[in-house]
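[INFO] parsing input record for BRO1 domain-containing protein BROX-like protein
[DEBUG] input buffer:
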Amino acid sequence: MFMDANNGITTVETVLNSYISLLLGFVKALDDRGGDYSKLRHSLRFKWTQSMLGDTPIVQQDAIFELISICQEYGIWLMKRASAVAGKDEIKMEEAKEVHTCLRKAAGVFSNVIPEIDKLLDKPDPGTDLDSRVMNAYIQQCIAEAEEVTIARAIELKHNPALISGLANEASKTFLAAASCVKALDASKFGKWMRYFQLKSVFYESYAYCYLGENLLSLDKCGEAIKALQEAEKNLQMAQELCKEYEKFKGPGKTAKLDQHLFFRSLSPLVKRIKEKCERENGMIYHQRIPSEAPVLEMKATHGLVAPENFELPSISQRWTPVAYSAFDLSKNLNPKDPANSKAAQKAEGPLPPMNEKDVHQSAKDPKTSSGCLIQ
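[DEBUG] output buffer:
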């Protein structure tokens, strides 16, 4: 079901919860022999590839590894589900809410598995999905992209420009935090992802200054407004350069044509229109000096901030009765330190075949909205 982002959330969650409720019998202790973990925790071997490291799997004989990995897969599927819904030719309000919900849920899933990772390994290999830097990057990306939906909604409903500026500034800082998470990781694997975060951060900083300028003009601070619009222009030019750099950079994942989206293209004429209005009004009415320093962006938006949605594991399946649990015979159980579990053995097994994911529609049409927002 994870191979198809067209599946509904409820359908996927029903199957997922059924699986996890059974898996928990291999994780939690169900007898009084002492300890928190099931006697079956190390009875099965699990293989998972890592989202940024190709087809060579990590193999661990540990049910907690499986629990973490299946939850991570669910979080990644939620992100793909958000993209599938947002990729429709015309997106309705209920569908926009689903995109927002999917991203908040995904952030909650990733947040939930980080404490479990700490129980599993003292020091995960760099760049794996067990690396907290990778998980934190996913969390920040989900929050930032959910904030994009909020910004689009605020623009669509013509909310106060100060609010829109604050939201855009929050999105910019969140994307920058995501870039910081992966900055120290292997550039050949993570460089493209980092550049995506960086260009999104600069792009939303441009949006923040644009709407700050509009708000300052409404407050008769025309000189400061012009300086804010100059900063918006500078950041937009930087974002355009980063787009070219991002598209050229090789790395895992598809390349989003961000500068071709209406939401990106519409910013330049918006900045130009507001700046020309500010300069015209300053020349005819205000005659204010343009400051050398850019005005300070609002550090915290007052409304519309995105928080991860809490994720909880289901209860253990009722099929795990004391009789069923005690009936498992571990006398022939594999030892986690057995040669069959060595790195050499894992290498000999070779990579896992790639999954044949179902295609999802991604509209090439411009959205029929004022904002032009599109999540990919």
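[INFO] The chain has one domain: 9-349.
[INFO] shutting down worker
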